[in-house]
Write a structure and sequence with these properties.
The protein is mainly beta and 539 residues long. Helix content is 5%, strand content 31%.
């Protein structure tokens, strides 16, 4: 994966063909989608052409780039198929596909007998005068390995971003031999020589992320409205273009960079193998109508990508905090999440200003909405959690205090916990403002972990095994505006139990610093979840 430093540089406008064209979206700066026909593909980062090395005709030959010479091994027939396009080598008649139909970053792109597989199907997204070539199976982009500009460098798939090594110019076959003048990746000070994007060791000061529109989205309440980290609030993709997506590849391309963008999800988008999809800054991801669904994967609001892993290890750490760009200003709204292979929504690695609103969460392999590893200023509101297990975690682990203390400020309000099990939320080290939620859960409402603070008010507890579960020394203020009936609290009915066994509150946590109105505890479920009235309105 290209470094997030470059993904967060001046990203080109994305225009997703297919569903986007059908939606009527246009952009004057975007390249027109090439029609089916014969083309030479010129890499924008190197000026070299995509070829089958040695004009080989066998299956399994990994594609490479080389000086453009018009040979048939550099000619590709673009053919429309269901779900996108095929790239067929003119000299062999074989298709460009991802080795072993993998969805992983860094996997070879090779020629292979055409089978119609989705790993041989590609979709084009405009990037200025060029196009990204996105695999329909994994949502990853055709890329030069290590972003090389050398002749003979191999071709692979990698996560989509604004790097020029992932952009291609489609030159009609038979045209004059393309020139070898590459397009430089945007930098603060252009130079005559193309800038080579760093791939291993970033500079001490990360590239500035586009900030998006200032202020807050309409209807937003809580910590996501609070100024901090150079932002005045959370506005998502406000001010950017609006696009509609209906496939994983289109969605992955639309959320990959940091350009402000409103991404409308139409119908059900099913994962293609990857557990989590990275979401860049300045995005509003919102479902169309009442049935927009994310199935089999989740959203990772996280600036720690594979390139950061290469120099910093698997996990972001306090020592690396100022060496990579943090994801910010994201709104996720009006979506139903089903069968997520990991978390449904994961906010981590110092991401901030995130609003998760009016979504419906069903059972996932792990959490539904987890906020951890130094993330901050998040609001989770008007969501419905249907029979979820580990619904919401705040704080990664008992041993992660060095990274989490002073961060993890989250507001949870007007959510409907509908037969869910635990973690509404479970809090370590952070500050949770929990108000006006409707609670009908199988196990516990609030988990009191290590070093946390919770201010809870106006919650309606219809039923639970216990209101609090004690995992540590978290402090809790439980105001008189909360409603519960001990007859519906299982542990309260156990002989010999004290109230502190099922509701431990010391009253030592102050109210949050922002303006809000908690109202009274809701005696009926709020208008929560995807498809609720007005949920598909762009805030």
């Amino acid at each position: 994966m290209k470094s997030r430093f470059d993904r967060r540089a001046a990203a080109a406008t994305i225009a997703v063909i297919g569903a986007l064209a059908a939606s009527g979206w246009t952009a004057a700066s975007a390249a027109a989608a090439p029609a089916p026909g014969a083309y030479t593909l010129v890499n924008a980062g190197s000026g070299l052409c995509l070829e089958v090395p040695g004009a080989g005709t066998s299956d399994g030959v990994q594609l490479a780039q080389s000086a453009c010479d018009g040979d048939s091994s550099q000619t590709w027939n673009l053919t429309a198929v269901s779900g996108g396009l095929q790239l067929k080598a003119a000299h062999s008649g074989k298709c460009a596909g991802v080795k072993d139909a993998s969805t992983s970053a860094g996997k070879a792109v090779q020629q292979e007998a055409c089978s119609g597989a989705s790993s041989q199907t590609w979709q084009l997204t405009a990037a200025g005068a060029n196009h990204r070539v996105v695999n329909a199976n994994g949502g990853k982009c055709l890329n030069i390995k290590d972003n090389s500009t050398a002749s003979g460098a191999l071709v692979q798939q990698n996560s989509c971003d604004s790097a020029t090594s992932k952009q291609w110019k489609f030159v009609p076959a038979g045209s004059a031999t393309p020139t070898a003048t590459p397009t430089a990746t945007p930098t603060a000070t252009p130079t005559a020589t193309p800038t080579v994007t760093p791939t291993v060791t970033p500079t001490a000061t990360p590239t500035v992320t586009p900030t998006g529109s200032p202020g807050n989205a309409d209807g937003l309440v809580g910590f996501a409205t609070v100024a901090g980290y150079g932002r005045t609030g959370t506005s998502g993709g406000a001010g950017g273009e609006t696009v509609t997506v209906s496939s994983y590849a289109q969605l992955a391309a639309a959320v990959a960079d940091d350009t402000p963008r409103i991404v409308r999800v139409s119908g059900t988008i099913t994962g293609t193998g990857a557990k989590m999809l990275d979401v860049g800054s300045n995005k509003t991801i919102i479902g169309v109508g009442t049935n927009a669904t994310i199935s089999g994967f989740g959203f990772d609001v996280n600036g720690w990508g594979p390139d950061e892993v290469a120099w910093g290890g698997d996990l972001c750490s306090p020592a690396s905090k100022d060496r990579f760009t943090h994801t910010q200003n994201v709104i996720i709204r009006n979506l139903t999440f089903r069968n997520s292979a990991d978390d449904s929504v994961n906010v981590q690695c110092y991401s901030h200003h995130v609003w998760v609103d009016h979504n419906t969460f069903h059972t996932s392999t792990d959490g539904s909405v987890d906020v951890k590893r130094g993330s901050d200023l998040v609001t989770v509101s008007y969501n419905r959690f249907v029979a979820t297990d580990k619904s919401m975690l705040l704080g990664h682990s008992d041993g992660n205090g060095a990274q989490d203390r002073g961060y993890l400020r989250v507001t949870y309000h007007h959510n409907w916990f509908d037969g869910s099990n635990t973690r509404h939320p479970r809090v370590r080290f952070g500050y949770a403002h929990v108000f006006a939620n409707y609670v009908d859960v199988e196990d516990y409402f609030i988990g009191l972990g290590v070093g946390g603070q919770i201010y809870a008010e106006s919650n309606y507890v219809k039923g639970a095994k216990t209101i609090t579960e004690d995992f540590g020394d978290t402090r809790l203020t439980w105001t008189g505006s909360n409603f519960y009936d001990p007859a519906t609290i299982t542990r309260a009915q156990d002989g010999g139990k004290e109230q502190s066994d099922w509701l431990r509150a010391d009253g030592g946590v102050a109210a949050p610093p922002y303006a809000y109105s908690a109202g009274s505890a809701p005696s009926a479920p709020p208008a929560a979840g995807a498809g609720a009235a007005g949920a598909d309105r762009i805030p």
